[in-house]
Amino acid sequence: MRDDLARAIRLRKEGRAEEARTILLELVAERPDDPQAQYQCAWVHDSLGREREAVPFYERAIVGGLSGKELEGAFVGLGSTCRSLGEYRKAVEVLGEGVARFPQSHVVRVFLAMALYNVGEHRDATELLLRALAETSADPEIFAYKEAIAFYAGRLDETWD
After folding, report:
1. Is residue 118 packed enough to be buried (19+ CB in 10 Å), middle (13-18) or exposed (0-12)?
2. How far is it, in rounded angstroms, from Cα 98 to Cα 93?
3. Residue 120: left (phi > 0), alpha (psi -120 to 50), or beta?
């Protein structure tokens, strides 16, 4: 099983996603409770532009006991996929749960910002992006204003007279 999973991952990385998909579909049929096989199957479907088919694999991976970086990736994958399918509220819900589980993850917060934009929550989306920028940018000019950007990120509508 693990050899087949590793082979499928390698094939996907080599750009041979259809071959990987065939292997992964066999693996999830044989071992439906394996969250890593579910996650990789979701990923390969996404990479093939088969987003709608990826969703149940992501969902099973998340509830099936995936952990660590793979679980974080599954939240990003599912949330991003829902957003690309126009299921914006579901994307916000999924990515919001991802942020709750991985509060230090900048990537989950950035994808949440995109989904928030889609539901018209522009202020919250902008705040998330500004905070991520302030916390991660190596650009010297951004770094010089890091504290100010972080301060104003949550005060976009405030003025001081």
Report:
1. middle
2. 9
3. left
Residues 92 and 116: beta-carbon distance below 8 Å: yes
Contacts of 112 (CB under 8 A, 6+ apart): 79, 92, 95, 96, 98, 99, 128
pLDDT (tens place) for every residue of the chain, 161 residues total: 579 999 999 999 999 999 999 999 999 999 999 999 999 999 999 999 999 999 999 999 999 999 999 999 999 999 999 999 999 999 999 999 999 999 999 999 999 999 999 999 999 999 999 999 999 999 999 999 999 999 999 999 888 87
Could you tell me the pTM of the whole model? 0.91
CB burial string 149-158: b at 16+ within 10 A, e below: beeebeeeee
